[in-house]
Amino acid sequence: MHVDKSSIQLKATITVTTDLGETFYPDDAELIATIRETANDGEVYARRKLKWPANARSLPVVFDLSRTDIDWPACLHIGIKTSVFKGHGFLPPIVDAWSGELDPTKGKLDSGWRVERRFIPLSERPVALIEDAGDSIARHLWDGSQALAQIIDDTISMETAITPLPLLEYVLVSATYRRLNAIELGCGCGTVGIALAQSIPDCDVLLTDLPEVDSLVAANIARLNPAINSKVSFHPLDWEAPLPKAVHARNHDLIIVSECTYNTDTLQPLVDTLKALVTRSPKAVIVVSTKTRHDSEAVFFDLMKAAEFTQDGSMRMPLPGLPGSGYADYATDVGIHVFHGRNHRLSLSPRGSDQEVPKAKAAIAAKNAAAEKVRTASKASDAGAEKNDEHGMTS
Question: Can you give the residue range of the structural domain that contains 82?
C-alpha cells in the first residue's frame, strides 16, 4: 500500500507458474483481481479484470483506492476468469492466490511474502494453506502433495468404486470407527496431514520436517478446521539423526511421504527413517506420493526393496492444466505408491488382535460396513418420517 496524503494505491506483482516456479504460463489468460474481506464469502470492495500475456514472467497490478470505501482489514485476491480452469478439490488447473491482510489504518501496508491457497474438498470443509512466495521450494505447495490430498478426499468420500490402493483405502475407511494416528515426513506446508485431519474425526496427525518450516507449519495449523476430536502438531525431524523421543514414543497407523524423493542424497536416510518407524509400528502403512522430477528418483524403490519393504499397490494421478518445460516440470501425473514392512499384519478385529485377513478383502469389507451404516441411518430416518406422517405430523 502506498499512502500519500489523500492518495492511496495498492501495488502488487503476480505470476502464473508451475508448482516450483520453473515454467511460466505460455498462453493468454483472463484474471480477476479483487480487494475484499478475507472470508470466502466476504464483501468485495474493488474489482478489475487483468490480462495475462502469453509467455509473460510477471504482471503488475495497481488499484487506486483513494475514493473507495473499504472496511479494513482487507486482502488482494487473484483468480482465473475462464470457467474451464475452475474446479473444486485440491487440483484446480490454476490455483487462486489470497494475499496476507492489509490495514493502512493501523500502519499495516505490506501483506508479506506469504500467499494463501484455499481448497474445497468433497466434505465441503474449506482447507486453507499458506506458502512462501519466495524462492524456497521447501515452503511451497507441491503438486504431489495436492494429488495425494485429492486421493485421500476421494477415498474417504467413497467417490472411487474400485481402487488400486486397497490397503490405503482400508486404513482410511477403518478410521471411521477407530482412532487414526498418522505422521507426515518432510511435510513442507503440511498439505496432506492437515487435509487428513480436516476430513477424518478422531485423527491425530504429527507433521515433521526440518526446523526451517516451523513458522510456516504453525501458521497453517492455526488455520486448521479439524474434524471432531482431530488434532495436528509439528515436531522437527532430521532423517540423518535418531528418532526423537516425541516421534519414537508414538504408534503410527499411516506414514505419509509426499514429494520427498527428488533429492537422491537424502533417499537412504529417508528409507532408514521409515524402517525405524515401522520397527516401532509394524502395522503401519506407508503411502508415497511423488511427481517425477528426474529419472534418478527410481533408486528410492530399489532402496525400499533392499530394506524389505513390500509394495502393495500403486496408481497414477493425472495432473490438470499444462505441464511445464523447465526443470522438474515435464511430468503430467503423480505416482501414488503404498508400502508395508516385513512384519505387517492386518486385522479387522480390534487393535491388538493377531487375526489376519487378506488386505483387499479387508478394505472391501470395511468400505461395505461404512456404506451399510449410511444405509441403516437413512432407513431409520425414512421410518421416522413415515411414522410422523401416520400421526398427521409434518417432517
Answer: 2-112
The answer to whether residue 132 sits within a structural domain is: no
For 167, 309, 340, 344, 360, the CA distances from 312, given in Å and listed in that order, are 7, 9, 7, 11, 10
* CB-CB neighbours of 160 under 10 Å: 14
In the β-sheet with 97-98, what is the strand arrangement from edge to edge?
Answer: 44-52, 29-36, 75-80, 97-98, 114-119, 127-132
pLDDT single digits (tens) 152-167: 999 988 876 667 899 9
**What CATH number corresponds to the domain at position 242?**
3.40.50.150
To the nearest 10°, the Cα dihedral for 284, 289, 293, 295? 60
Please report which confidence band the pLDDT of residue 378 belongs to, taking 50, 70 and 90 as the band edges.
very low
Residue 386 lies in a domain: no
Query: Residue 355: which pLDDT band, with cuts at 50, 70 and 90?
Result: very low
The cell 499495516 sits on which residue?
A: 108
Number of domains the chain is built from: 2
- Specify the CATH number for the domain of residue 18: 2.60.40
Rounded to whole angstroms, the Cα distance separating 259 from 92 reads: 19
Q: Which residue is associated with the grid cell 479484470?
A: 49
Question: Looking at the structure, do residues 87 and 202 belong to the same domain, yes or no?
Answer: no
